[in-house]
Structure formats: C-alpha cells, structure tokens
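Standup notes
- HV: blocked on the assembly model, inputs below
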Amino acid sequence: MGHDDLKEMLDSNKDSLKLEAMKRIVAMIARGKNASDLFPAVVKNVACKNIEVKKLVYVYLVRYAEEQQDLALLSISTFQRGLKDPNQLIRASALRVLSSIRVTIIVPIMMLAIKEAASDMSPYVRKTAAHAIPKLYSLDPEQKDQLIEVIEKLLADKTTLVAGSVVMAFEEVCPERIDLIHKNYRKLCNLLIDVEEWGQVVIINMLTRYARTQFLNPNINEGGEKAFYGSDDEDDDDEEKKAEAAALAKRKPYVMDPDHRLLLRNTKPLLQSRNAAVVMAVAQLYFHLAPKAEVGVIAKALVRLMRSHSEVQYVVLQNVATMTIKRRGMFEPYLKSFYIRSTDPTQIKILKLEVLTNLANETNISTILREFQTYIKSMDKDFVAATIQAIGRCATNIGEVRDTCLNGLVQLLSNRDELVVAESVVVIKKLLQMQPEQHSDIIKHMAKLTDNIQVPMARASILWLIGEYCEHVPKIAPDVLRKMAKSFTNEEDIVKLQILNLAAKLYLTNSKQTKLLTQYVLNLAKYDQNYDIRDRARFIRQLIVPTDKSGALSKYAKKLFLALKPAPVLESPFKDRDHFQLGSLSHLLNAKAGGYQELPDWPESAPDPSVRNVEVKDSVRAGGTVTLRGRAPGGQACGVFLSSDQSSGEEQKRNRKVVKERRSGSESESEEESESESSESESESEEESESDTDIKKKKKTIAPSSSVRMYELLHRITGEGLAVEYCFSRQPFSPDPHMVAVQIQFTNNTSSETKSLHIEDPKLQSGMRIKEFPEIGQDFLLPAGESVNVVMGIDFCDSTQAANFQLCTHTRKFFVSIQPPVGELMVPAFLTENEFKKEQGQLMGMNEISEKLNLGEKCQSDHAIVERVTAKANLSRVPCGSEKENRFAGKTVSSGSLVLVTVARKEGGGAQLTVNCEKMVIGTMLVKDILQALTQ
Amino acid sequence: MWFQIKIKSSLCPVYPGDHLIYKDYRGEADKDAVSIFYEMVTALSGDQPPVVMSHKDLNFIHVRQGGLYWVASTKTDASPFTIIEFLNRLAALTKDYCGSLCEKSVRMNFALIYELLDEMVDYGYIQTTSTDILKNFIQTEAVTSKPFSLFDLSNVGLFGAETQQSKVAPSAAATRPIMSHRSEQGGKNEIFVDVVERISVVIGSNGVLMKADVEGEIRVKCYLPTCSEMRIGLNEEFSIGKSQLRGYGMAVRVDECSFHQAVKLDEFDTYRILKVCPSQGEQTLMQYQLSDELPCAPPFRLFPTVEKDYGNRLLIFLKLRCDLPPKSTALNVSVTVPVPKSSLSLSQELSSPDQTADLQLKNKAILWSIPRFPGGAQLSALFKVEVPGLSSASLLEVGPVSMSFELPKHTCTGLQIRFLRLSPTHPGLSQRWVRYVTHSDSYTIRI
C-alpha cells in the first residue's frame, strides 16, 4: 500500500501540497479505504499553522487514533496547547479531538481538560465540554462520580447553547440522578424555546420522564371523560370507572402543580417547529403528561407532519395509530387526512388503514366503509388484503354495521381475484363465529366455493366453518366431505387437517351418512407423509370410533369436538403499544431497544414541590451572599446582594439555615472564604463569558459588587426614615425578557414598622411598561432598622426616558422616577469574531459612529479598557484576533437591536472608538458615555 | 432522550450495492454493517423497505433521497424522528453544498461530505445543521460537473414563440453549490423563488369532485453571499381560513399556512408581504394547504365508456379534457387505466402521433402518455383489450384511473408573487427568478 506520493506531499514545506494531500486522504477515508499506514506522516502535521490542514488532520486523527495508540500520544501535547489558545474555536476543537481519541492512558488528561473547559468563559467551549463527558464515560465508566460533578455544574449554566448538550450528557451518564434536575427545572422550561432544535428534543424527552416522577396524574379524577372518547374495552372501562369513582371519593380535588403547568405551557409553541423531531417530542409529552382535555392540540401538528417525507409519515403514523386507540376523539376531525392516496407506499397505506379502523365509530363508519370499497380495487394486493381485514375489524367493533360488512364481504367472494376471495373467506369465518345461526345461507354459498378457491388458508377456513356449523347445513356438509375425500391426497397440509376435523365432526353428528367416508379419510391420513397428519388421524380414530378398549374420553368426544368456541377478538396490533414512550425507537420496534429508559408511572402522592424552588437572588449571584454576610451585614454598597430574606418565604429560610450550618460547622474564616469562592465561580460562569481570561485571574479586583452602581430613589430624609436605592442588576428579567431588571432596596431607618409597600399610578411615555414587584403584602412588616430587596421590571422602549411612579407605604406616597443610563438598556450578546464582522458590515453609514480619543492614564491596558467599558454598558466581549482591538457586543433589551462597540488602541495612548447600532440615539449616547469612561 | 444516535453509515445506492460514504462515530458498528443493510434491503420485495429495520441489536433507519439510501444505525434507543429528520437535513445540506443530489455529485465530493458529517455530528450527537454555522468550518470546496445539458432547453417553447430567453432561468443555474467563495467566477448573485404545489384529487364516477387537496410551498434558493432583507409580496387578496375573505370575488384562499421561523410577518397581515433575510442555500419559507375545495375546476376531466365488444374484447373509450386556461400547458401527462387481470393484448387508436399507449402486463394496466397537453384541448383514445373469458364482472375491474402530470407556470390556488425586492438594493448584479409549478400528487378518477 505505498502512498509514497502522499507522504512526500505531507513532508513538503508547502501548505498547499499538504492540504491537497490531506484532502485526498480524507476522501479515501470517506470511501472506506484504509489509510492507517499514513498515520506517522499525518500526525507530524498536527502542529501545522495552516488552519485548513490542521482541521483535516484532526478529522484523520479521530478516525485512526484508536488503532495507532502510541503514535496518537505524540499529538497529545499539541492539543494541550490548543486548549489554552485564545481563540475559542481552537480551544473547542482541541477538546473535541482530544476527547475523541479513545486511548485509556489519557483519561486523566481528558478529565482535567473537561473540568477546565466546563468553566471556560466561552459558552461554545462549555458546550464542547458537555459533549466530551459521555465520550470519557464510555471510555472509562470509573470516572462517573467526577463526571457527575461536572454535569451538575454545567446544568447550572444559563446559556441556551450549553443546555441541550449537558442534558444529553446527563441522559447518557446518570439518567437516574433525577435530583440534579430539580434546581434547574424551571430554568430549563424557560430556556427551552431558545435552545437549538436538537437540544430541544433531548430536553423535552428528559422533562417528560422527570414530570412523570414529580407530578400527579392530571387525569386521575376524570373518570367520566373516558366514555366520551370511547374505549374499546367496555368491561375494563366499567371496572376502571368503579375504581376511579372510589378514588374520587377519597382524593382531594386535583390541582395541577404550577411547575407541571409551566412545562405544558412552554412546550406548546414548539408544536409549530419545522423540525419533525421537536414536534413529535412535544406531542409525546402532551400525550403522556397533559390532562385529557388538552391533548387534542397535538393532533393538528401531527397531521401537519403527515405532509412531510414518506419516512416521516411512516413514523408519525405509527405513533398516531397508538394514540388513536387511547384517545380516538382527538383525531376524528382529521379523518380525511388519513385517506389513502394511490401514490402512497404500501407500508404507509397499511398504517393509514390501521388508523382509519381505529377511528371508526357509529357516526363515521359509513363514510369509512365507502372509502374502503374503493381501496379494494387497488392493484396492490397486500393492501387489498389489509383492507379486507380492516373491514372485518370494523364489523366486530361496531355491531350496527356487522351485517352490512358481511354482505359486502360476501360480494367479494365473487371477485375474480383469488387473493381477494381468500382473504374475504378468512375474515368472514371470523365474523360468522359471532352469530352463526343467522347466516346459514352464507355458509352454503361458501361451501360452493370449495370447487374454485385454491388458496389453502381459504379452503381450510371454509372446511372449518362447515364442520363447526354442520348442523346448520345438514345436507351440504356430507357432500363437501365426499368431494374432499376425493381430492385429499392433493391438498396442502392445513387443508388435510381441516378435512380430518370435518370428518370427525360429521361422524359425531351424522354418523349414518358419513361413517364410511370418515373411515376412508382416516385411512388415507394414516399413510400420509406428514407425521402431524398421521398423528391427528390416529388420535381422532381412537377418540370417535367406539371399540372395546376405547378409553374414558370417548364419551366426551362430542363435547371435545363441538364445544362452543369463543369468537376471536380482532384487535389492533397497536393495542398496548403505549407502554413504550411514544416517539421512541422501542415504540417503533415494539421491543425494548438497548438503553431505553422506562417511562415511570405517576407517583401516588406528589413529592415535595419545594425542591424546585430556587432562591430568587440566587440568580443575582448567590455566592456574594455568603461572603458579604460575613463581613458587613447591611453594608451600603454590598447590600444589593443581600438576599431578601423576607421577600419569598420558605426557600429563604432554608438558605439561611444553610448559612448557619456552615458557620457552626467551620470556625475558620479561610474555609468559609474558599467555599464561597467556589460557589461564586459557579454561579458566575455566564458572567465570565463577557470578560477575558486575564480578567478572570484578577476577578477579585472587579468583583461584581464594585462594578454595580447604586442610585438613590428616595432619600431617607424625604422618605421620613424610609430610604430607597436602586441598581441595575444586569440579570435577565425572567417574567418578560423585554424588560430591564431594576433591583430596589428598601431600608427602614425609622423606629416603627413600614407596611404594604407598593407602586401606584405609573406615568410612562407611550410604549413603556412596568412590571412591579409583587406587593409585599399587608402582613409584611419592614421592621425598624432592617432592609429588603425586590426586583421590578421596566420596559424603557430603548430610550433613556425616565419612568415615573408613586411609591406607597401604608401611610405615605412618594413621587419617584427611575432614569436608566444608556448602558443599562442592553444585554450581552455572544457573537463569534466572524459574526461580529458580518453584523458590523451591515451597520455602516448612518449607523456607525466613530470618535478618536486619548486614553486616560489608568486605561492603557486591555484589561482596564474591558473593565471600564463593561462597567459602563452591559456588553459582552467578543473574541478578537488582533491585539490592538477590543470588541464588545450587546442587544437592546426592548427591540433586540445589535449594539457593537470596537475600541482600537493606537500608538501613544490614542484610540479609536466605534459604535455600530441601528438605533442612532442609543449609539450617540453610548459613545459619549464610553468616551467619558475611557478618558478619565 | 436516549440520544446515542450513531449516524454511522451514511452509505448509498443500492444499484451497484456498494457504499459511497461511511462514517462510524462510536466505534461500535460491525465492519459488515453496510453489507447487512444491503442484504436486508435486497431481500425484501415490495416498493419500499421499512424505514426501521433491526438485525440482532443493531437498528437501521434510513431515508431515500436523490436515489440514494441515507442510512443511520444505532444500538440504543434513539428518537427515530431525530434520526430521520437529521438524515433529511443531511441530504438537504449535501444538496446545498454540492449543488445537486445524485450519486455522481456525492462521488465527486467525498471529502466535502465527510467533513460536513464530521462537523455536524460529534460522537453521535448532532451539533448543528445550520448552513450558516457550518460554512465557517468547512474547508473543502465542492466539485461540480457542468456538462451541456439538454434540460437547459426544456423551458424553451416550440418554435420559440413563447420564449423570452432572457426571462427563463436555465434549470442548471439552480443546481450549483452555495459555496463558491474561492472561485470568483461562479459567484453570481442569484436568488430563486419557487412556488411549488402538489395537487391530489379524487373524482367520483359521476364526475363529482369528491376530494381535493392542494399542498404548496414557497421555496427560496439563495446564492447571495450576504443577503439583506428580502420582501416577497403575495397576492393582496390572499386569505387564510374560511371566515376571512378579503376584497371582492377572486380571493386566493388557503386553509392553513405555516412559515419558516426566520420569516418576519409584521407586514403580512395588512400588505401580504413576507420579509426574510435568507441565508445561503435552500429554505422553505412558507407552506400552505387547501383542502376540500378548489378555486377553479380540477385541471383534467375524464369521460370514460367501458363496454363489452363481441368475443372476448373489451372496449375502453376515454375522452380527456384539460380545463386549464388556454395559455397554460400540462406536460408529461400519463394516464394509468387498470384492466382485468387476464388481459392479454391491446390495440389502440390515439389522436396524435406523439402520444403513446401500452399495456403493462406486470401491473395489468394501460399506460397512456401525452407529452404536451394544451389548456382547453380535448383528447380521446380508444383501447381494445383482448381478455379471455370476459364476463360482465370483468367490467368492474376496469378503473380507477390515475393520472400524473406537471403544470408549469400554474398554481392551483392562484397564489402569485406580486413582487420580490431586495432592500437595500444589493450592490452588483443580482438576478431574481420566480418560478411556479404544480405537480400531481395523486389524481384519481373513479369509473
């Protein structure tokens, strides 16, 4: 296998040759050709500067590293270097390739890399870390505990980019650790709509399982509804109803957990997704979790999917077939959508038939049967056979149409197509078993068919029918036996067995006419080639022909042969399929696939819902709480981060308890410090992404507390002892993303309590909106000397106009106003360098404002610039190749317009500031603010 | 979700039976997974193998596109929807990147597709399927062959009468790869907007329209490297749902309508304008459905007579009328008439020499093909079928007739694109093409 030419090219100095060689090698791999002998030549190029070559080398390494472990280890140090690269894309791809090298020796290196990447400032790298977790897990399951820690950390991440990936890792590594989800449940529900589509599928499926363990069955008290939708099993239904009625008496009225509602509400819009997988995931969530009355919404979405590729149709129909058994009502309005088209592939046709059959009821059966009639003319024989069976099932399920169906089927007996006739015979046999006495003429008609029909199954069915109901056709039956005796030796085995059967039955009922015939048939069978038939003949002879030695069974022969047989139940093959989670592969195969997670049953009583509570201020930096509390309780600047102990009840108390425990547990200051630090970095992972690595090292110096400025809303003198301050916490305001979160701190400096704090009479510019903090309530007291924090949301409509309103206590009203600095009207946006350039390219001309400036003495370093700019405006830093430049990006809160800021340093302390923003007013004001900050 | 998809094998066509591209993401697949799949597919009869097949603990899921099998295999319980959706996206992306989707283009672009696969999926996890994101990572360039194609001329009308060469986009123009950043010459700024409708109709034996269904979509294929906002104006009298009627008479109505998530609809309610910044490649901007009633007569009506001739001969006389407006023309019309099982031979009388008809013994049906069928015209055909043992019951075996056709420059709902504007106007030459076509999905006429 000499690839000497390729080796030569790889060894050359020219990147273009190397690139060409790598392309050819990758094409070889893609075709499945072995290129492993090139490994040494390729691995040398892993450190190549050319990014195109480098990428293709990565592709190669992932494919062959496992086979060439020793050589692969040579490349490890390159990746370790790559993990520290300033470019996030390189960090991410280094981690990706490193974790794909399946060599056990490097497990510790991988572990370390994953841990580091999990707290990387770039969400893209954190996402890659999440992807690497299951890879490491499959390489070395021993690492599970450590990996769970990383998962736990990443689950707390607030960026949508990471959410989908970490849930995938969770599902693969520790799906049983449902407790890790509690704290993140609400966040996941709220983020869901913004997660990328493949992540949505994973999260929805996981939340389905979560909800099944944490909430109560919403249909528990709705016994009556079942009858409305119609269930096929009436006995079952009755029992169920009784049980439900009993349960109803015992149970309190069902109230849905608000978290359960949250999940249903936040997933519903995703039914509009253009990704079929997302739509199906939501549909199965509703099917498994929603109250019956609400499940209907998914029908329309699923019917819409049926207009997609035939493969998608196939899978949708499988699921619809299962759903129609349980919830027939919801698909009834869409009956026509399941009509069969002549262009459908056979498997789709058969599934549609199944659905139509499940949907049939007294009102629509005539339409459905008319439709079925045209299907019988189809050229597709498998499909015609399935249609006939479907007619049979409709006839058994709906008593009213049984005779109509039977007549229709009998007409088919004169069809020229033998397969059609045979299938009809088989179905008629099943139907007749239900009411044989009324249909002796049909049996007669069928007896005549034995002359023509050759399909063994049909012949056997006819013979069985005549034998079974020989008393209804006493004259014809012996004649049929006579004909059959003549052709016995030429028949198929199943037909022979039925001839024996017929003979035995006739012998027992009408031995005068058939005794000799039976003897003859039994003799023929005695010498048959098939031993089953010989056996059967011997057995029948012993049983029915009386001899001296005949056993005790002989007198029961008639009872044995002519016992009343229960009519067969024609039921859907999709019955009971729903014990597999819909939309899963196991459901499709109707068998457990590897790694299938059972959908748990609803719990009897709801587990504690408070586990999902998250401290409100947790999202505003929980870490700060502990540290600051230790130092200066109620300190002015730091007070912002005090959690509002009184504002939201229970969880706060718990939180306080934790703090107390920590205190009592460890006396030493330093330990407490370190603990708080670790929790700080966790909760801040998102915040960090806006700063740079070098800043991260000096995190202490720009601790968030110092960067947030407090503004006065009400001085304690004008407020007669009540002091109110506010700040812009820069946290997303979760009830409404278009609002700026304003954190307000009330301090009661009087000697008496203050009651019922609330907002009244807001005077706003048109378009502006206020979401006030929940009124703290009549019972609430702000005791003397204490302070409390609340968060309110204001939509400033991207303007710096003030929001005016009245602040009321139980005794007084104060006119106050909040005016936002322009930098607080935006939220960070995470862009790559390329995206930044692209967006900037579109915001030229009027939308670009540029200013030259001289940097202030203390602002000469990158670090200082970043610090000043981010303090002034809520922007995130964009990675940048050039050392002279710093770039920042954000979006305005209200309209989501991009705000791009570039600070390019020049020789001698000069700099150029450029702001690109669609909103020119904001751009101008921002330039002014930043200019001021940088020149001081 | 139990999301260990291993899109392991994306292998291909069954004709030669070899695989084109294969990628194993987890090192779990047996080396012969490809041949197992091939054996399973070839062992099956019938028109389409089941979408999901399993062999021991290995599950195969496949889709068929462009005459190729796109197969993923997994050992664990992954969501089949995710896999199918992913395979469809993969096929769409391949089409975007390679220009067209066929065995040849896949063969020429192994490295590119392999690279795509590498970026899209990591260890069985889908990372991204967005063209815009992937563009940043893909290094390999697409290879295309641009042989002279007769298809380029397919839009040219007879005698050149209707042709306005300048206004007809050659069909090959829309089948080139989106990535041509390094080779400047191919980078024409073009944008294609296609309105594609599929009609399915059932007409009863008495000529009454029993069921009609139109599914349509507006597709955009964009070659502009950075596209600013595009505004697509639909008919002003376009209405959704039954209650909402706009203007007088001639309303263009659909029952249901859904849009791509990138479409901005703020001007849709009042002006019927879709605003979108299309990314490179192909996207479906809008999908709509109309069921139960058509705004105009169904495009074809059939007047059949079936009778027994003397002897064992069956006479089928078909009169077919095209109810399109006289300016429109239907292309590639084919009519399939099922005949009794025992039919032996056929003799026919057709009204013009370019039509053909033959008896397909395998399907027991007559296939009548009409390459061009102008609107308002009426064609007739007489078929004499030799059926041994002909009985009156045999007459019932004739029908239902199914048709397939293509209606260029025609939409059944009447949806039109009023204008297509790029704002601000793109620097340099940008060409905009709007095309309409209606395909038959299933057109059945009962006899």
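- HV (later): unblocked. The mean pLDDT of chain A is 78. DSSP finds 43 helices and 16 strands in chain A.
- Next: hand off to the docking folks.
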